């Protein structure tokens, strides 16, 4: 086994940020889905929470839900055509 980190073979630029499930929001209308509110570390204070439908699939393709307090990773990726080069930082 190599000590080299696995390289993502995707050509899409991406960033992954840690987050924590702050709360699980039950639907007001029973036919609506339950939501998970996630606080994303590294985001601006006013924009750090997102809410997503609280349905994920495990490796057996079974539906599961996040628990309050769960540590998660939030990944944002884009097609290369949807990005622009950033100027190089100088020291």
Characterization of the model:
The chain is extended. It is built from no helices and six strands. It is mainly β. The mean pLDDT is 90. The protein has a domain at 19-76.
Helix and strand arrangement:
Elements: E1 14-25, E2 35-40, E3 49-53, E4 56-57, E5 63-64, E6 71-77
Give a concise summary:
This protein is mainly beta and 91 residues long. The chain is 0% helix and 37% strand. Strands 3-2-1-6 form a 4-stranded antiparallel β-sheet, with no helix packed on it. A two-stranded antiparallel ribbon has the order 4-5.
Tell me the fraction of residues in β-strands, as a range. 35-45%
* E-strand count: 6
Category by helix and strand content: mainly beta
What is the first-to-last residue Cα distance? 36 Å
Q: Percent range for helical residues?
A: under 10%
The geometry reads as extended
Counting H and I runs of at least 4 residues, what is the number of helices?
Answer: 0
The overall pLDDT average reads 90
Largest sheet: 4 strands, antiparallel
Descriptive keywords:
91 residues, four-stranded antiparallel β-sheet, two-stranded antiparallel ribbon, 37% strand, extended
């Amino acid at each position: 086994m190599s000590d080299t980190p696995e390289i993502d073979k995707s050509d899409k630029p991406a960033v992954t940020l840690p987050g924590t499930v702050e709360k699980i929001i039950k639907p007001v209308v029973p036919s609506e889905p339950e939501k998970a509110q996630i606080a994303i570390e590294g985001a601006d204070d006013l924009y750090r929470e997102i809410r997503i439908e609280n349905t994920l699939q495990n490796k057996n393709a079974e539906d599961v839900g996040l628990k309050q307090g769960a540590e998660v990773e939030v990944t944002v990726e884009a097609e290369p055509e949807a990005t622009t080069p950033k100027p190089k930082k100088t020291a």
